[in-house]
């Protein structure tokens, strides 16, 4: 009979490497193998890196890290590879057409404050972990190292519009039924003058 292990949550040490062509975040995952790690891209532009492994019978170790992707990132080309227990998530950037005065940078979402921490220029360390709801994977692309990058589904706007229209129509009908019921009630309670 298998026993569900108790998991120890931990925050992996992270190091940013910023460049003009790409940003790279290195997550130090000592003891993890690439098949124990999952990298997902949500439809909100957040990379979710998670993993779990068994330490011994009855104990396990797991983590979850969320990274907001910068607006100048080529999300189709994000990839990850693992070397010497360090997971590298590579986020290629689009060529800048015009440099704005304030440029969006990738951020790591904090669990405790749920506020965005804007990443500092060049190399820096982040040790914040976030615990949010699950992502919605649609299709997976396998990197050369075997780490799975899951991309979000495209939003079917016509379906959303139809659901919104049905809700509005239902509300209008309910209001009309209520109005008719109120008028009928008042009419039936009015004394006959004739």
UniProtKB/TrEMBL annotation:
<keyword id="KW-0611">Plant defense</keyword>
<dbReference type="InterPro" id="IPR008978">
    <property type="entry name" value="HSP20-like_chaperone"/>
</dbReference>
<dbReference type="InterPro" id="IPR002068">
    <property type="entry name" value="A-crystallin/Hsp20_dom"/>
</dbReference>
<dbReference type="GO" id="GO:0034605">
    <property type="term" value="P:cellular response to heat"/>
</dbReference>
<feature type="transmembrane region" description="Helical">
    <location>
        <begin position="169"/>
        <end position="188"/>
    </location>
</feature>
<comment type="similarity">
    <text>Belongs to the small heat shock protein (HSP20) family.</text>
</comment>
<feature type="region of interest" description="Disordered">
    <location>
        <begin position="98"/>
        <end position="132"/>
    </location>
</feature>
<keyword id="KW-1003">Cell membrane</keyword>
<feature type="compositionally biased region" description="Polar residues">
    <location>
        <begin position="99"/>
        <end position="113"/>
    </location>
</feature>
<dbReference type="GO" id="GO:0005886">
    <property type="term" value="C:plasma membrane"/>
</dbReference>
<protein>
    <recommendedName>
        <fullName>SHSP domain-containing protein</fullName>
    </recommendedName>
</protein>
<feature type="domain" description="SHSP">
    <location>
        <begin position="4"/>
        <end position="110"/>
    </location>
</feature>
<keyword id="KW-1133">Transmembrane helix</keyword>
<keyword id="KW-0812">Transmembrane</keyword>
<feature type="compositionally biased region" description="Basic and acidic residues">
    <location>
        <begin position="114"/>
        <end position="129"/>
    </location>
</feature>
<keyword id="KW-0472">Membrane</keyword>
<dbReference type="GO" id="GO:0006952">
    <property type="term" value="P:defense response"/>
</dbReference>
<dbReference type="Pfam" id="PF00011">
    <property type="entry name" value="HSP20"/>
</dbReference>
